[in-house]
Amino acid sequence: MSLANQVALITGGARGIGKEIATLFAREGADLALFDVNAQVLEQTASELRALGRRVEGLVVDVTDASAVEAAVLKVLDKLSKIDILVNNAGITHDGLIVRMEESQWDRVLDINLKGTFLCTRAVAKAMLKARRGRIVSIASIVGLIGNPGQANYAASKAGVIGMTKSVAKELATRGITCNAIAPGFIKTEMTDRLADEAKQRLQALIPMGTLGEPRDVAQAALFLVSDAARYITGHVLVVDGGLAM
Ligand code: NAP
Q1: Best mutation site among 11, 15, 63 for ligand 1, i.e. most ligand atoms within 8 A of its Cβ?
Q2: What is the whole-number distance in angstroms between the Cα of residue 91 and the centre of ligand 1?
Q3: Whose CA is nearest to atom 44 of ligand 1?
């Protein structure tokens, strides 16, 4: 599943699952552009990836800012000449029960997870349409498929990502561009580290495979979906959850 001579743009690529995807893609030969918000962490990750011998552009971009996204995509096209792959990975949680959920909590999660995915997809799709080829993968969640108490905002954002993925897949299918989503279950990252030990144990008991997933499990799924091996797959939601959503 070599990605030699390909350029991949990964949002939220400075840490967590995004960094793991970036690292695996770099090992497979891709040059990278990373969009993230924390300049220091971003530069650290970019330099680690450069050490693998790849060209890496780390850009401080908030994916909710339409003009920043458009400008940054143009910069990537200027510096790296093309974008073959987009991975919409930037995402947050801000949990709360529905009766106590603040409007700001709802808006922020929908803005980053769903609108951010829209803005990056719109900006990159223009270049992919011209090139008549491309791979778009968005990181959704099983919570967008099965729901989760305390995560109405997050579930709505991820269900939105899945609906958007299928619509974009239909729009771009004749132009050599595939658009798919990955729905991870619970993966060991800083996002899940924040859960109380008791909650983690309860969760683990619900997972048929008995453990949380690793970021690498999601990265491998992303690599498959952007590779030539998945050339006839579009509009699909690949669940990576140890059997949790069954
Ligand atoms: P993470 O460790 O919190 O990493 C997310 C990255 O996105 C961080 O670098 C973060 O920056 C960045 N980011 C946040 N807001 C941004 C914005 N507005 N613009 C650009 N970048 C932004 O999260 P993760 O666990 O790796 O999750 C990655 C994706 O997988 C998310 O979409 C998440 O919903 C999804 N997912 C995760 C799990 C899981 O169990 N971990 C399960 C299902 C789905 P900061 O460092 O500044 O916050």
Answers
A1: 15
A2: 4
A3: 141
Tokens of 213: 């997933």
Ligand 1 centroid distance, CA of 174 (Å):
31
232 is catalytic: no
Domain borders along the chain are 7-240
Q: Which residues, in sequence order, are CB contacts of 107 under 8 Å at separation 6+?
A: none
Q: Along the chain (246 residues), what's the average pLDDT of each consecutive run of 10 residues?
A: 96 98 98 98 98 98 98 98 98 97 98 99 98 98 96 98 99 98 95 84 92 97 98 98 97
What fold, for 7-240? Rossmann fold (3.40.50)
To test the pocket of ligand 1, the residue of 189, 212, 240 to mutate (highest count of ligand atoms within 8 Å of its CB) is: 189
Alpha-carbon distance 245 to 185, whole Å? 8
Given the residues 154, 158, 160, 241, the one annotated as active site? 154
